[in-house]
Write a structure and sequence with these properties.
Blueprint (H helix, E strand, L loop, with lengths): L4 E8 L2 E8 L4 E6 L13 H6 L2 E6 L18 H14 L5 E6 L1 H12 L4 E7 L4 H7 L3 H6 L1 H5 L5 H19 L10 H11 L4 H15 L13 E6 L20 E6 L6 H4 L1 H12 L10 E3 L1
Parallel strand pairs: 3-4, 3-5, 5-6, 6-7, 7-8
Antiparallel strand pairs: 1-2, 2-4, 8-9
Helix pairs in contact: 2-3, 7-8
Length: 298
């Protein structure tokens, strides 16, 4: 029987976070979600990690759901997001952490590992490239076209209005339309993300991640080397980030295991949880990690 998932409110880095918690193991795992997701996106991975001996926390990141929602764009600068992750680890009294992350959470996780903010046992990244690889590909027309929404999000109030229209219909469509296996995103699932995004002020906070990053520019992002053993799982049908953004990751990650999942979208851990979990479990237990697509060897 899977360990239950409960929700608690945790004070960290001067804010209060709504955190899903699972397991009571001696090891600690922190799971960071992306846009426009929430802590709910880790529902398939939390029981697995609990079974493997972890105490698992999946917070709603600042601005999301019922977590604290600072008002200013600058509050969502990458430095503050990294500090949130560190604060949650401190609140958990973690000596070392498995940091697992997707989308915007992975942007934070890359920086956390590169900056060596706190000790990490392992790093697991899903569908966001190392910052140096992304910077390289962003100079290409192919990736620039895929990143059009980042520029749209710089507009005042209009993105919020579009995403809020018809009860957050665009939030639900982000999953159901991008997914390859649409059966993984029934209304009951997309409603979780839609309702979270429709919390008062949440949409502005969520979009402020992009506004803060755009204003800060590349100087705020460290493109350095990751020493932490890293598993990178990539859904090949990602319409926001091209597969080319993963190429040459081994130049920047000393101990890299990279696996591709053909026929899976950006929402990899939700769309293919059985396959993703098999890779995670093998990697954490020292077994050969299954290969479903091409592998980039470190």
């Amino acid at each position: 029987m899977d360990a239950p998932i409960k929700t608690a409110f945790v004070k960290a880095n001067g804010l209060t976070f709504e955190v899903d918690q699972c397991g009571t193991g001696d090891k600690f795992a922190l799971l960071l979600h992306g846009f426009p997701e929430s802590k709910f996106s880790w529902r398939h991975q939390m029981p697995l990690l609990a079974k493997l001996g972890y105490t698992v926390w999946a917070p709603n990141m600042r601005g999301y759901g019922k977590s604290a929602r600072p008002a200013n764009i600058a509050d969502y600068h990458i430095d503050n997001l990294v500090a949130d992750a560190a604060g949650l680890m401190h609140a958990a009294d973690a000596k070392s952490t498995l940091l697992m992350a997707h989308d915007w959470g992975a942007i934070v996780a890359w920086q956390f590992a590169i900056r060596k903010t706190r000790p990490l046992e392992r790093l697991c990244i899903m569908n966001v490239p190392h910052p140096a690889c992304f910077a390289r590909e962003l100079r290409t027309w192919a990736q620039l076209k895929k990143s059009w929404y980042v520029f749209f999000f710089q507009l005042p109030w209009i993105p919020e209005r579009v995403l809020r229209a018809r009860g957050g219909e665009a939030i639900a469509r982000a999953f159901s339309e991008m997914a390859i296996d649409k059966a993984r995103f029934p209304t009951a699932v997309t409603d979780e993300f839609r309702k979270s995004a429709l919390e008062p002020g949440a949409l502005s906070a969520m979009i402020n991640y992009y506004r803060a990053a755009f204003r800060a520019g590349t100087k705020s992002i460290n493109p350095g080397i990751v020493d932490t053993p890293t598993l990178m799982i990539w859904g090949e049908e990602d319409t926001a980030l091209g597969k080319a953004t993963t190429f040459e990751t081994d130049k920047y990650v000393k101990d890299l295991t990279l696996r591709y999942l053909p026929g899976v979208s950006h929402w990899v851990q939700q769309e293919a949880p059985e396959r993703v979990n098999a890779m995670i479990e093998a990697w954490l237990t020292g077994q050969p990690v299954p290969i479903e697509g091409e592998i980039l060897k470190a």
